[in-house]
Amino acid sequence: MTDERTARSDARRNRARVLEVAAEVFAAEGFSVPVHEIARRAGVGTGTVSRHFPTKEDLLTAIVGARLADLTAEADELARREDPGTAFFALFTAFVRAGAADCGLAELAGADRRLDELGERAGADLCGRLQELLAAAQESGAVRPDVGYSDVRALISACMARKDPLEPILAVVADGLSARSSTR
Amino acid sequence: MTDERTARSDARRNRARVLEVAAEVFAAEGFSVPVHEIARRAGVGTGTVSRHFPTKEDLLTAIVGARLADLTAEADELARREDPGTAFFALFTAFVRAGAADCGLAELAGADRRLDELGERAGADLCGRLQELLAAAQESGAVRPDVGYSDVRALISACMARKDPLEPILAVVADGLSARSSTR
DNA sequence: CTAGAATCGGGACGGGCATCCCGCTTTGCC
DNA sequence: GGCAAAGCGGGATGCCCGTCCCGATTCTAG
């Protein structure tokens, strides 16, 4: 439809502008901002938004998908270069920081199901990597064995939702998750 | 208006029934359930609901206020009978368990501001008690000094949102919060 | 420059929901 | 038993929002 090559130049411009504005607005105020408002700030009509992105969900997918892909790539990088424990905690922190900087991403991460379903696979990929790293970290003894993936997800979500400095809560959670805590 | 003594008997009955049903429904499905649905399940008209509780918020206040009052009383009890560290962790756990059993309460606890306001309206300053217990527990050296009240709130909220067993995540968070973690 | 097609703007539409209203029913006192 | 008055039911109203549509506008190939 809006092919990057064949589309009219004004259409390409508008599409990019909508994406840019929507990314800012979702990051600042979350996904509940009306489409109408995004159109207004982008200086286009609502019709223009919904032609490029037939559904609000499509818009979200286009924006958040890119962020998730970045994080997934980082996860792979970490898995390759670091030991399991280090890699797991690094991904945990990166995920949290990404969410803290992007209100929309944080909302999404809070709704377990939606993150998995988002887009084709962007969300599922990241979730899969996180699960693998958790398992590996537990295997290697860096993370206590009694926590589940869903516990980790909940903790990530709690950390991202913070407005205040992240360091204290990250320290608390990292200490709690590490194996030395469970053994006193 | 709907005075417990002077009201007509059918009015009292209906009011009680609405409260009962709403408490169940909010606990099971959260605050987003339409008022219409509550009326239907209670076997009354929507008008009856909104006469007794002019606003959906009023209904929520009536229900959650009672829970908050219970927890506040428990907090006072704990503060009187236990040492600060024990009392703090006990309240933490009680709060989490209450939220895990009540979807509506969990939603509310996630929205920092609203819980404060609702507690105030219901005359149950649970948040204040939690803050006091945290401060006392930190003073006594039971809780690491670098965590803030808002960190605690976030962790509580994350724990309550769980559907799976609470024990693992409670153990993780308790270990992370305790002072021995911060000192290695 | 021009024509025709792609794109635009923003109003129309529909669905969901909280709240209000009013004709009818039930209650409780005499 | 009868009659105000209180209470009831649920349809009407208003608001918010996402999506669709179409006459007006802008682009670009020739």
From TrEMBL, chains A, B:
Molecular function via GO: DNA-binding transcription factor activity; transcription cis-regulatory region binding
HTH tetR-type domain mapped to chain residues: 12-71
DNA-binding region per UniProt: 34-53
Keyword terms: DNA-binding, Transcription, Transcription regulation
Domain of life: Bacteria
Protein name: Transcriptional regulator, TetR family
Lineage start: Bacteria, Bacillati, Actinomycetota, Actinomycetes, Streptosporangiales
